[in-house]
Amino acid sequence: MNPEDVQKMIQAGMPDCEVKVTGGDGHFEAVVIGEVFAELSQVKKQQKVYATLGDKITNGEVHALTIKTYTAAEYEKAQKLMVK
């Protein structure tokens, strides 16, 4: 799988979110931004993203996935912190 494939799968399962995926060779990082994450625990946020990949994790096509989830406001704040 390539980053675009992973991005399409997450986007299909979470159409109201903005999704950015980088990586390759089974190791990916996904940044997912959406209001669906408001009020959820970190575990619940990651479960929502993992659910969009179906069996790709269990069958090894996605070996490692780092997930960063944000609401729009959280992402904006994180971006400002990175710029400093």
**Helix vs. strand class:** alpha+beta
Please report which band the strand proportion falls in: under 5%, 5-15%, 15-25%, 25-35%, 35-45% or over 45%: 25-35%
Mean pLDDT: 93
**Number of helical regions:** 3
Percent range for helical residues?
Answer: 25-40%
- CATH A-level architecture: 2-Layer Sandwich
Overall body shape: globular
* Regions with little confidence, pLDDT below 50 for 5+ residues: none
**First-last Cα distance:** 34 Å
> In total, how many domains does the architecture comprise?
1
Order of helices and strands: HEEHEH
Tell me the name of the CATH class. Answer: Alpha Beta
Q: Biggest sheet: strands, sense, closure?
A: 3 strands, mixed
CATH homologous superfamily grouping: BolA-like
CATH structural fold name: GMP Synthetase, Chain A, domain 3
Task: Tell me how many strands there are.
Answer: 3
Order of the strands making up the biggest sheet: 1-2-3
Rg over CA atoms, rounded to whole Å, is 13 Å
